[in-house]
Amino acid sequence: MPASTVKIPHHNPLRLLNAEPNWKNELSDCVTSIDELLKKLDLCPTQINISHQTATQFALKVPQSFIARMEKGSPNDPLLKQVLPMAEELASPIGYSQDPLDETDHNPAPGIIHKYRHRLLLIVSPACAINCRYCFRRHFPYLENRQSKSQWSKTLDYISNNKDINEVIFSGGDPLAVNDNFLGWLTAQIANIQHIKRLRIHTRLPVVIPSRIDRQFLQWATSTRLRPIVVLHINHANEINTELKHATQLLVDAGLKVLNQTVLLKGINDDANTLANLSERLFECNITPYYLHLLDPVQGASHFDVDRNTALKIYRQLQAIVPGFLLPKLAQEIPGEPSKTLIN
Ligand SMILES: *Cc1c(COP(=O)(O)O)cnc(C)c1O
Ligand code: SF4
Fold it and tell me: Which of 66, 118, 151, 261 has the greatest number of CB atoms lying within 10 Å of its CB?
């Protein structure tokens, strides 16, 4: 019997290690139609104030695995709300822009965002496995930042020539949307630059498609001197299912540090108990809470905003529930500052 027909139980971590890489299939199998998504959830379009217009500006995209974690018949499901194009996105209050973080001003070479002195972001992939409605990069000119392997030499030269940089952060889009051969190649090039001490991977892909953490990924990630730090992006405890727990276990067992960042989102996670539940679930998965971000004022996301005072109130309540090591740092990105700004 060929190995691929051997039935390994769904929740067996061996499945993640031994199966052919199937994350690519899951990636191409994402739901991109509002009607299809609502149908899967037994919801009727008239129940919800959806907007097909906003979906033409920033497409609906959500993996089946993530949909399976949503509650059927619940228009207010906290996972659904992160992906469903809503009419509220058409509002454009003052102060909300297409580039709220001034990233295009810090784009010294294609694929690079260099804002903070010792660390630099690499836009490794323009694509994501999921389109989050609140995303601050929803208007980023990714096409101008697309590049071939040969063009990466300019990017690598920039890193080599800037000896102040000691950490490279794979970002996007989602860096894990590209294949492991390329990631392994890029990592080897960066590891050749002596002043780089650390590699960080900012990704949501293993959250929404846990099979992304497979043998090919672990192979390059564990064979570099840079020992990647994986920073996941999980906003709600309901996002953590058994498969994600197994995937993070693989990362931890491989010796990688796993952190999480969350965006504080109105109607999704803007209360202390919800955030405390998330921290507890992260702890069960060996993931350390890192940042709790205030929303960046990007056009189309104003209905998710939690104002600073409310955020602080929620944060103090959270601090009274969880131990200090499960308390993320409440942070905001203010353009022009040398780092993220901590709020307390
Ligand atoms: C958030 C961010 C970083 C990383 O900041 P840390 O505080 O080290 O996590 C680096 N560069 C840019 C442009 C960022 O937005
Ligand atoms: S960059 Fe992150 S937050 Fe933005 S759409 Fe992609 S996965 Fe979501």
Answer: 66
